[in-house]
Amino acid sequence: MRVVGLTGGIASGKSTFAALLRERGVPVVDADALARRVVQPGSPALARIAAEFGPRVLAADGGLDRKRLAARVFADPAARRALEAITHPAIRQAMREETRRLAAAGHELVLYDTPLLYEVGLDATLDCVVVVWAPREVQRERLMRRDGLAPADADARLAAQLPLDEKAARADFVVENADVPGALAAKADRLLADLRAGLGRRLPNAPPVRY
Ligand code: ADP
Q1: Are residues 155 and 62 in the same domain?
Q2: Do 11 and 113 fall within a single domain?
Q3: Which among 62, 114, 166, 169 is placed 20 to 30 Å from 42, CA to CA?
Q4: What is the pLDDT along the chain (211 residues), one digit of tens a residue?
Q5: How far is the CA of 169 from the centre of ligand 1 (A)?
């Protein structure tokens, strides 16, 4: 089975594109959903997080208070590394289990929808990577509209990620999502046809395939 990474920048349209791939019958594994699952109440990862950061990061129902934890690690790189040392191996393990399950069900292609794919170095473990791209100005506008953010907050979120142009330069496939959303459906068809025809990782100096 081939495991293809799907990523983008905040509000570039990755989730919109992932939904189109799902509609076409491809299993799309949501890394955010796995990340929430591995810290569910009763999980070993949650117990380790509580031991590391104290009971203050737990909500009244015993689950993780994600906002509190995010605020705790946001401006503290050492705390963030400590958190990631707990969560990342658990997420990778969950991804391996999900991959095995899908392979056993007969799927030949699976997409991993992962917002911070390059930031966490996941590209090395995948067969190839698709980046959903939009110009920064478009990302910023969509982000303000979708999440009701002030311009300064949108800029802060954008600045916290690797620039999308850099991700696109490293990708094997780039899906341009600068214009109307209707254009994405045909791009999903073309990408899937190319992946099923065996296209994958590009040669080191070759440009990505663009849609
Ligand atoms: P991501 O998952 O990359 O953060 P989303 O798929 O949620 O991004 O898209 C961000 C916002 O922009 C959403 O509100 C979505 O409906 C909207 N959107 C996505 N693609 C387009 C497009 N081509 N034109 C206009 N709006 C779009």
Answers
A1: no
A2: yes
A3: 114
A4: 999 999 999 999 999 999 999 999 999 999 999 999 999 999 999 999 999 999 999 999 999 999 999 999 988 999 999 999 999 999 999 999 999 999 999 999 999 999 999 988 999 999 999 999 999 999 999 999 999 999 999 999 999 899 999 999 999 999 999 988 899 999 999 999 999 999 999 998 999 999 9
A5: 21
Q: Going edge to edge, which strands form the sheet with 128-133? A: 28-30, 109-113, 2-8, 128-133, 173-176, 209-210
Q: Which tokens hold the place of 73?
A: 């690690």
* Distance from residue 47's CA to the centre of ligand 1 (Å): 35
| Residue ranges making up the domain that contains 160 | 1-27+108-211
Residue ID of nearest Cα to ligand 1 atom 1: 11
* Ligand 1 mean position, distance from CA 150 (Å): 17
pTM higher than 0.85, yes or no?
yes
Domain boundary among 87, 106, 125: 106
Cβ(16) to ligand 1 under 6 A?
yes
